[in-house]
Amino acid sequence: MVHQPSYEPSDLAIQTLGPREFLSPLPMSTKQGDGIGSFTPDELRVLYEHRFLEGEPLNSLAFELAGARQKLFFDPQKVKAAIVTCGGLCPGLNNVIRTIVFELLYNYGAKEVLGIRFGYRGLNPEVAHPPISLTCDTVDAIHHQGGTILGTSRGHQDVKLTVNFLESEGINMLFCIGGDGTQRGAHAMAEEIKKRGLPIAIVNVPKTIDNDIKFCHRTFGFYTAVAEAEQVIDRAHVEAKSVFNGVGLVKLMGREAGFIAAAATVASGEANFCIVPEVPVDLKVFLNKLKKRLAAREHAVVVLAEGTGQHWLEGSDQCDASGNRKLGDSGSFLRQQINEFFAKEDMPVSVKYFDPSYYIRSLAATAVDSLLCERFARAAVHAAMAGKTDMFIGLWHDQLVHVPLELSTGMTKRLSPEGELWISVQALTGQEKW
Ligand SMILES: Nc1ncnc2c1ncn2[C@@H]1O[C@H](COP(=O)(O)OP(=O)(O)O)[C@@H](O)[C@H]1O
Ligand SMILES: O=P(O)(O)OC[C@H]1O[C@](O)(COP(=O)(O)O)[C@@H](O)[C@@H]1O
Predict the structure, then answer these.
(1) CATH code of 294's domain
(2) Which Gene Ontology cellular component terms are annotated (predicted)?
(3) Where are the beta strands (DSSP E) in 278-362?
(4) Any idea which ligand is nearest the CA of 208?
(5) Ligand 2, CB cutoff 6 Å, lining residues
(6) Which terminal residue of the chain, N or C, has fewer Cβ atoms less than 10 Å from its own Cβ?
(7) Domain termination residue (choose one: 325, 346, 362)
(8) What is the count of structural domains for the chain?
């Protein structure tokens, strides 16, 4: 991780990455045959598509590669950075905080790092949660703990007030760790900052246990949660197999996307049905299939992503503080439907219901996620120090890239029922297929 960034009072401007940069032509077209060494890091791109059909035109959509830059926009000695964590918990939040602090203070020699308390609430001066000072000592051992030492929250804050706060505190770099809601909030702040002409960088590190952030093949914490969920499925299998016509029913997190349920199902190899929001399921068809399965094997395991089957339940218009739809308990509903269906069929079943809920997301990150946190956090600091703003760190073909926040608004990422996640270039033209 050693690099030698240079700060000279430089010609760099703070750079909002708009979609124009994302769509920029590849540098290869202008510097043919020079080899990679002749490009500056800002010119390196990661191709959007890595598979091409013969005869199809080679598209040149590409992301800017993340990483350390030779020239810095900010003078490290004048950097007052702040970190905020928003939305639901996710394994690895503390790892990201710790690495951002280390990278800023140890490697760049930044002046000061603040921790914003309880999400965007802590940026609202009208709410009494003053920031805390983050030093290498205070964050030294936090990566062993789940959760976030800063606290988190949902709920809207006035963008003008939050930017006033950044300005009055002299914060010139804000790292927002959060999901799609956090990204929308960060984008709104970046726009207000641009309007006021302030040299403040807003850089996001994507966080979501649901793994549903666009332009990010995998978010940190996801594999940790999947490993926990896999164990629950395995236990459900043991319970189901131990009795006649046992049904192990497992409900897992996944508001709009079934990535956790699908990945844990495949990892476990013990589930017979995996029901995800992306595939509408007819309850009757499912119950008849379950009947067939029980007749053949005398036990079954069913995994359900919590956002699934909301249409089965009484409609609820309720939302949480951030405006996310509140979910009905589809797991309890399914358990009841299974019991009622088999009672009518005069077929005895024994349903064992598992709802691990927050259990899979409130733990510390496992090694594979700790590594990802480390990569995301360092890339975020490099981007901010170079003066990039209104962007987040994406993960594309296992390369960290810079993605304009503007591109992440709208629908979140979805599992492809057809198999491997396949993302069409049409996603850019509005006809999304996630
Ligand atoms: N359009 C928006 N403008 C400003 N803030 C937003 C917007 N959407 C969401 N937020 C804020 O972002 C924060 C996190 O959002 P939330 O949906 O709770 O979690 P996540 O970021 O994990 O999706 C909340 O404080 C929420 O109010
Ligand atoms: O009860 P909370 O904290 O609002 O969280 C519940 C929701 O948070 C999630 O874990 C995802 O949250 P984020 O989008 O904030 O990462 C969902 O799977 C779940 O429905």
Answers:
(1) 3.40.50.460
(2) cytoplasm
(3) 299-305, 350-354
(4) 2
(5) 87-88, 90, 179, 208-210, 253-255, 306, 320, 327, 361
(6) N
(7) 362
(8) 2
